[in-house]
Amino acid sequence: MAHYRCVPAFPPLREMTRHEVVEWIGPTLQRCLTGYFRAARSPRPAARPSGPPTDGPPPAPRHG
Known about the structure:
Blueprint: H1 18-41
């Protein structure tokens, strides 16, 4: 079974009612997805070279 970092403590789902499961998993999923989309939207540091921006279109990737 995979271990998810955003899940603090996994409750015994088999002993819980469906309503309790939904109440627990709703905010947890929302927090996970919010963090995931925030990380996906933020610019990655490796995507853009550090230094002054150059005029014109970005250089094409070089194939070595």
